[in-house]
Amino acid sequence: MGSSLSVENPHHILISPNAIFSAGFLAIGDNAYSFAIWFTEPHFHSPTSVTWMANRDQPVNGKSSKLSLTNDGNMVLIDAALNIAWSSNTASSAPVELHLKDDGNLVLRHLQGTVLWQSFDFPTDTLVPGQPLTRYTQLVSSRSESNHSSGFYKFFFDDDNVLGLHYDGPDVSSSYWPQPWLISWDAGRTNFNSSRIGVLNSMGLFSSTDNFTFVTSDYGTVLQRRLKVDCDGNVRVYSRNNVLQKWYVSWQAISSGCISHGICGTNSFCTYVPKSGRKCLCLPGHRLKNHSDWSQGCEPLFQLTCHRNESMFLEIRNVEFYGYDNHYVEVSNYSACENLCLQDCSCKGFQHSYSDDKPFYRCYTKTQLLNGRRSPVFQGATYLRFPKSNSFSHKEHASEPLYDHVCSVQLQRDYIKSQGNHFVKIFLWFSTALGAFEVICFVLIWCLVRTRQKSNVDREGYHLAETGFRKYSYSESIHDDEERYDGRVVEWVREKKGNSSNSYWVEEIIAPDIGADYDHRKMEILCTVALNCVMEDRDSRPTMSQVVEMLQ
């Protein structure tokens, strides 16, 4: 009691006995620090491996801030102005100590072991193996990848005892996973168990009391893992590859990129392409409110009136908006749906779609255009309401710039990339480049042969060796093609080599244009290897490993 950890001392760090976890002050911005717990490896101060933060919504200054144990048994985080940024709200007349356990749980306890406070009871956005999610706890995403303050996405047990993902935005809130239109049984859940506990183990198995279970892609191996609610509204399990010293995604709740609610804000919609990722796009006639925060959505560049004769509609195909339906009508044609929207001054547009499970059209009039997404699976369109005096068009909509969402997560599809695939890609690129170079050389040499018509036998042999072609008389041309194919080159080189008792035969096959500017020994080895590789007896030809060895 009375001791403290200072933000200015980099050695004031708690390390678990097994050295897997560390706790201390972590820089989360420019002169902004939070007292946090993180996985010690692979990066000692990497925010990506943080498992808990004390003061995520009130960071402290990098000068004079400290975490202290008071004489009355409280643990407080004080900034430079002596303001309390965070407190454990505990009290004890007996001595206490702060201890970081092997499982990553930071505990404030009596010297006899009685726990007064523990970080497992106050999670931020992450669970570690063995840490339970209960009826009293929830995971809250960060605002963005760089802003670690509390965001809009929450993971908790609802009043029906079902574990799910929820969007809690500045203006509206909604549930989106499991799919809200499904009853618990259809979603594979049960709401009869009111104990509300979910936990992930180190083998990669997660189970909860609502009958929801999953296993990670690397299930069965004890690894460092963390379950996290990311700032894009998805829940993912990250596992650590001990060999590559990196984290990878081993499970995720949502596979489609645009399911999360509120991801692009009002009057906008989300598109997802696997290669380029998720994008947000304003509706036609709207502009982005905040270029650094898509969750604020887009604002209209026009004003609607309540006079139906002053409104028109613009079709946006394969785009749907979830929720905020003022009317829902089945077996509705387009005209009836349009009239229904025109009769309502609060109607911003309507959704007209066809359903495969029920062979008729459905009409939804919208009071808000939120949770929009473009999907080729959606067999319908959204019709956006405009004043007739507008000058917007599909072309203007198409020219709207695309902006990445503030939160992006790179998924590792195979989780651990194969090094062999990387080699194959390099080899294919090299082969393609080499092939293109050979084609260029062939064309250039062919042009050279056409312009230099020399009949000297040796000179013709040089051309033969370089290109594989030579001139033939009419009588020669009637010989069998196989007899006079590239074998002429081999025969010519072997003849030169066989007629010489020393190494001067190399000089006789080198084109005069080259002169003496070459390595005589290397050229002799190259020619010898080439002759061995085209021997008529295939069994006598060297293997690739032997060729490499001879050329070294």
Automatic annotation (TrEMBL):
Keyword Glycoprotein recorded: yes
Membrane topology listed for this record: Single-pass membrane protein
UniProt keyword annotation of Nucleotide-binding present: no
Pfam family, one: B_lectin
Protein's cellular compartments: Membrane
Ranges that cross the membrane: 426-449
Name of the protein: Putative receptor protein
Chief location: membrane
All residue ranges annotated as the Apple domain in the record: 306-390
Any single biological process term in GO: recognition of pollen
Entry-linked SMART domains: B_lectin
